[in-house]
Amino acid sequence: MPSRRPNRIVVVASPKGGTGKSTLVSNLLTAARLEGIDAVGIDLDGQGSLTSWGEDRASIGRRPDVRIVASRLPDWEDTLASVHAAQLALVDCPPGLDDRGTMHDIRGLMRVSHLVLMPCLPQGPTLRKVGDFGHAIRTAMGVDAIFLLNQVIAGRALLPDARRFLTERGELAPVEVPMREDVHRATDVGMASVEDARLGAHEAMQALWQFVARRLSITTREAA
Description:
Blueprint: E1 8-12, H1 21-34, E2 39-43, H2 49-59, E3 68-70, H3 76-82, E4 88-92, H4 100-112, E5 115-120, H5 124-141, E6 145-149, H6 159-167, E7 171-172, H7 181-188, H8 202-215
Parallel strand pairs: 1-4, 1-5, 2-3, 2-4, 5-6, 6-7
Helix pairs in contact: 1-2, 1-8
């Protein structure tokens, strides 16, 4: 019997917190809905940031509407089955993937995904931990895991070193998402940078969606 899962599954994961996973998922989900794609967000992070964002969006009647399912990482299989009719599922994973049970679950989820995005900050212990984790996932499982530099400040001297470090450990997305305060302000009120050119990181979030869509062979209005 074929597995009951969405047509395309994107997992956004990081072994460290504070890398912007929920913000990235909310923007990709909004971008997909703007294209008329039947996309669903899956919030496996116990903090519920993605769920709260969706509730804020619904409370102000923002369009397009979004669908978000809150669940837990150990229940990922049943959760994907519950939204199997969707064209695209975007999964926000919890941080802290070090313990044995969590690693078992995240590996299972990654194995059935079509793309794994691993956001990281361009400096400090977060960069090294994400880089080493992503390298281990790619080599041990053959997962299509791609690093994404997030909250980047242009012109910083450390950026070339961060790019080199990640490139040596796997594939680095051609898009870098800049550090902008209004990105977070928009998220706090149920909005997404991708839907309003006046918001910070609009172009970067649009470019990220186009990159993801190409990797998933999704035809967008821009590509058409």
